[in-house]
Amino acid sequence: MMNYSSRPPEEPAVHAQDLTVVRGPRTVLRSLDFTVPRGRITGLLGPSGCGKSTLMRAVVGTQAKVTGTLEVLGSPAGHPTLRTRIGYVTQAPSVYDDLTVRQNLHYFAAILDPGRAAADRRHENVTRAIADVDLTTHADALAGTLSGGQRSRVSLAVALLGTPELLVLDEPTVGLDPVLRRDLWQLFHTIAAERGATLLVSSHVMDEAERCHRLLLMRAGEILADGTPDALRTRTGTGTVEDAFLHLVDEATAAGRTQETAKETTR
Questions:
Q1: What is the pLDDT of residues 154-164, one digit of tens each?
Q2: Is-contact 73 84, C-beta < 8 A?
Q3: Among 5, 70, 146, 149, which residue's Cβ finds the most Cβ atoms within 10 Å?
Q4: 112 pLDDT exceeds 90?
């Protein structure tokens, strides 16, 4: 059962303590303690299968069997009041192939902000979101005719419709060409700097870590390190975040072997 405490408004966008997720016989997330600062880009980095997507689902409130403390924007994760305050982009694009880009966004905008009185506001939000992801020239194209990268951008546009306070992006740049990846990261920084939004972005591509203000490095359901790219490089005496991650993996592996040896000697 999840437990919560009241926190002042200046607290981080996400606060987790002893966060654990068990799926069947497997513990997917193991007693995680971390925070995500407001108005910054936090990268969730780690190899495929380490628990990044599970953690993101927990943050947006769609993950079952979550225990520990998990507060998002000052409320329990999954609280109804968070629905319009969080934008979530999954790995698979969530768009309707038989609708145009504009029609897709109008459909989702009507769900977020229903009613005839909101029509003008919805139109403005749709136009802005399409421009944000640089799809204005494809606004009237059927989603099913778009490239994979363009479909991913439509999903991102949907997440941007309500000008969310927190954007949770699950590997948004996977499969994209270098130019589009660069452009999306520029957009992420603009959203954080100019709109004050918080971004939690997952990736297994270590060079993207350098684009984040802060990093959570994950492996096998645990957080190996939490800090800025500079701090992690300094701590490990390495030149890149990838080398820092590998150094931390080696440290954790060596520590695990030492513990196992100690257990054996006390038996």
A1: 999 999 998 89
A2: no
A3: 70
A4: no
CA–CA–CA angle 187, 189, 190 (5° rounding): 60
Cα distance between residue 97 and residue 104, in whole Å: 9
In the structure encoding, which two tokens stand for residue 57, read together?
Answer: 């689902």
Q: What pLDDT, on a 0 to 100 scale, did the predictor assign at position 8?
A: 47
- 3-state DSSP call for residue 63? coil
The pLDDT score that the predictor gives to residue 256 is 62
Amino acid, single-letter form, for residue 48:
S
Q: What does the buried/exposed string (b/e) look like for 3-16 if buried means 16 or more CB atoms within 10 Å of the residue's CB?
A: eeeeeeeeebbbbb
140-143 long-range contacts, Cβ below 8 Å, gap at least 24? 140/100, 140/101, 140/102, 141/100, 141/101, 142/97, 142/98, 142/99, 142/100, 143/95, 143/96, 143/97, 143/98, 143/99, 143/100, 143/101, 143/104
Token representation of residue 148: 């994979």
How many angstroms separate the CA atoms of 267 and 203, rounded? 42
Which whole number is the average pLDDT over 102-121? 91
Mean pLDDT calculated for residue range 46-55? 92
Written as six digits, the tokens of 157 are 């546009």
CA distance 189 to 62: 26
Q: Pairing between strand 214-219 and 166-170?
A: unpaired
The first and second tokens of residue 164, run together, are 């969310």
pTM summary value: 0.87
Are 54 and 77 within 8 A, CB to CB?
no
